[in-house]
TrEMBL record:
This is GTP cyclohydrolase 1. InterPro entries: GTP-CH-I_C/QueF, GTP-CH-I_N, GTP_CycHdrlase_I, GTP_CycHdrlase_I_CS, GTP_CycHdrlase_I_dom. It is an enzyme of class 3 (hydrolase). Pathway: Cofactor biosynthesis; 7,8-dihydroneopterin triphosphate biosynthesis; 7,8-dihydroneopterin triphosphate from GTP: step 1/1. The gene is GCH1_1. Residues 143-319 form the GTP cyclohydrolase I domain. NCBIfam families: folE, PRK09347.1-2, PRK09347.1-3. Its EC number is 3.5.4.16. Belongs to the GTP cyclohydrolase I family. Residues 14-23, 41-55 have a biased composition (Basic residues). Residues 83-93, 124-134 have a biased composition (Basic and acidic residues).
Length: 323
């Protein structure tokens, strides 16, 4: 949850379901918007940013922001891809390639890299490939940092209860961010089946535990994933694992929702995907506004869920978000 945002329930899913006529602003900007006004503002900001970036690299690395809009869907996918593909997610080792060859040649898909990683952080590969010695070095460094934090809040890091805290915290943080180095192919592991099934599939109430990247405190909640296959279905247990891969990172709920939807779209190539997530952010609940009952709802609908309000509504009513 961005610190600047109001602790209001995100109304996007309701907007999806209520608008009979397709409203581009509310229906397509994947529930990360809190209102159409908000999303208009965000779009402006996005456009400005893109323009700046475009001026910086005139090699066409970024998508065009003006001129003819190919189609609402294409525009939307571009803007989503751009938003989620944070420059910080770019693997350092591939930067040279990306700059010379353009974004298309960088990876087989915008979601999954050649080596099966999806949106790794700059240090992911180093972390994944390091030997025992390097891993220990990393832990020692982290422990020092936690010790400093303890001192800074006025605690005594040498009192009995805190003696092992730096080590425990360092290990916990490594666990809670291990999603960066998960290989998508390992998750999917041939669990794609050509069943000729073309009806909606929903996995409800997937428990999510993630870390807010603004405060590094948890946000927890439930995610519901639905898709309509194009003949191919995926093993049901894989959907929660895909969600977890993106949850075990420093996240914001909006991006988490989007990344899960786009990954499933990429892996399965279904007719459409819908993801909705309801969660409670400790950074909101425990500090700041202290609205303990506030729930944040985000959604992302792609493909036929985006095009057909009837399909979208069916999904939202089946997962019970549309109360
Ligand atoms: Zn936060």
């Amino acid at each position: 949850m961005a610190p600047s945002e109001d602790p209001v329930v995100d109304r996007a899913p309701h907007a999806h379901s209520r608008s009979k006529k397709r409203n581009h602003e509310t229906a397509s900007v994947s529930g990360s918007s809190t209102s159409s006004e908000d999303s208009a503002r965000r779009k402006k900001r996005r456009d400005r940013k893109a323009l700046k970036r475009k001026n910086a690299h005139s090699d066409g690395l970024t998508v065009a922001v003006n001129g003819a809009r190919p189609s609402a869907f294409a525009t939307r996918r571009n803007s989503l891809g751009k938003a989620a593909r944070d420059p910080r997610d770019e693997p350092v080792t591939k930067k040279g390639v990306a700059a010379s060859a353009g974004s298309r040649a960088r990876s087989p898909s915008p979601i999954i890299d050649f080596d099966g990683l999806s949106r790794p952080s700059p240090g992911t590969r180093e972390r994944r490939e390091e030997d025992k010695e390097k891993a220990d070095e990393r832990l020692v460094k982290m422990q020092g940092a936690v010790r400093t934090l303890l001192e800074c809040v006025g605690e005594d890091p040498d009192r009995e209860g805190l003696l092992d805290t730096p080590s425990r915290y360092a290990k916990a943080l490594m666990f809670l961010t291990k999603g960066y180095q998960v290989n998508v192919e390992d998750i999917v592991n041939n669990a794609l089946f050509h069943e000729g099934h073309n009806e909606m599939v929903i996995v409800k109430d997937i428990e999510i535990y993630s870390l807010c990247e603004h405060h590094m405190v948890p946000f927890t909640g439930k995610m519901h994933i639905g898709y309509i296959p194009s003949d191919t279905v995926i093993g049901l247990s894989k959907l929660p694992r895909i969600a977890e891969m993106y949850a075990r990172r420093l996240q914001i709920q909006e991006r988490l929702t989007k990344e899960v939807a786009h990954a499933i779209m990429e892996i399965l190539k279904p007719q459409g995907v819908a993801v909705v997530m309801e969660s409670s952010h400790l950074c909101m609940v425990m500090r700041g506004v202290e609205k303990t009952s506030a729930t944040t709802i985000t959604s992302c609908v792609l493909g036929c869920f985006e095009r057909k309000s009837k399909t979208r509504n069916e999904f939202f009513s089946l997962v019970g978000v549309n109360r």
